[in-house]
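Hey, I'm writing a tutorial for new members on how sequence and structure tokens pair up, and I'd like a real worked example in the thread rather than a made-up one. If someone can provide the structure for the chain below, I'll link this post from the tutorial.
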Amino acid sequence: MSEKPSGGDELGNEFRRLGENLRNLVDKAWNNEERVRLTEEIEASFSELGSALDDAVQKVVDHPETQRLKEEVDEFGERVRSGEFADQIKQEVLDVINQINERFENTNFNRSDEEKAD
């Protein structure tokens, strides 16, 4: 009588075969000329995109309007740091509050009954 392999050995052998088949499939797909060509095209396209973006950014940075805007932002930052901006805002707020107070004081709403009779 010939002995049959046990069920465990047969199952293990089938899993090994499956693993080899999957490895071969992945290996063939990975080394496929079409995949290699597509990968090279994608890498070249990303490189071109990067160069185009670098050029565009450099044009924006070098543009006179960008330089002017940068100078204005720097000047504004200096005004804020020096306190000049805070002093200017404080004065403008005081002026507005003063105008509001004057309007209230000049309306009948805020006058006493004696002042309204005059």
